[in-house]
Please model this.
Amino acid sequence: MKVAYCPAHITCMFYPSDFGPAPLDRGSRGVGIKLGMGTTVRAVESYAPYVTIDGSHTYAPVSLEVMRRCGTNLRLDIVNDLPVGQGFGTSASGAIATAICASKGGTLDDVYRIAHDVELMNGTGLGDVAGISCRASQPIRLEGGYANDGRVVGSKIAFQRLTLAVLGPPVSTSKTLSDPKIKDRLREVGSKCMDEFLEEKTKEALFRTSNMFSREMGLESEEVSNAIEALERKGVRSAMCMLGNSIFIDSNEKAVRGILGDVELYSTHTTASRPQIIQKE
Model:
């Protein structure tokens, strides 16, 4: 059995960068944060692929395609620390951890390339893999796509304490990203917000430009908008996770609970750690 772990990733703002002849040249520019929670994949060899996600057997096109690319069949048990479809990059962290388990001697760079390509093919993400590949807590994707050539850099921003709040049902990333009108608007708003953040690269700028992005794009659900406003009135900074009915909050769980009440909360922090094998037998 092989067990691999990959940290999760939140995108704060982004816009598509679909230029280039190959998938590794396509993706998105954006700003994100890497979380101290993520995805664990346990894998054993099997005569046919079989995947469970968080305890349920399911058709998992991303995992199945990763195995096909690696030329192996595995029985996978994928466990996410955070809910799927809420802007925590679980598709990317799962794809990376699966590729680590399925890889037959490849490098971590090879793993990232496979995971990025499969994410694009399935419409499940544009830049989470590139963000996760960064060796810093706060990745900045300066160019779209994935390549180990400095396209992703890190700022000095880190959070020793971060609370995540899930406020509504999951959001379909593929459905949102496939809408041409939304993609055009993303390029306009995303480039403006990202350029403003890059001028400062501070926590204050991160929350300010993230909120500017989600509001001008009209991506916030009513629950997300109300939660951000309630926290802001108490002097607590928060912003939406792309693309989910969720927010990340610069405060501890107890304080957030006192403001938002009985909502689904997760306590974590940021991390610069890279994906890795944590068990191999």
